[in-house]
Specification:
Elements (H helix, E strand, L loop, with lengths): L9 H9 L1 H24 L5 H14 L2 H9 L1
């Protein structure tokens, strides 16, 4: 981050309020979503309305913790 002056870098402001672990997790989540979006777009994956119904219900009820459970199931 040396190429920014402290007053210009938004990550330094987050770092001052969140701490190392929270900043790492926020950046990791953004990177994962970026990767997944590119993968889905690049492969031309399409989902039907029934997927969106189930997925939105899972997010509303469990947040992203439900997605973690699905990933662990395998």
């Amino acid at each position: 981050m040396a190429f920014f002056r402290n007053s210009e870098c938004p990550l330094l402001d987050f770092h001052a309020r969140w701490g190392d672990q929270a900043l790492y997790e926020a950046v990791s989540v953004c990177a994962l979503f970026n990767y997944m979006n590119r993968l889905v777009e690049g492969l031309g994956i399409k989902a039907g309305p029934d997927y969106f119904k189930v997925s939105s219900q899972r997010l509303a009820e469990h947040g992203y913790g439900g997605l973690i459970k699905l990933i662990k199931q395998g």
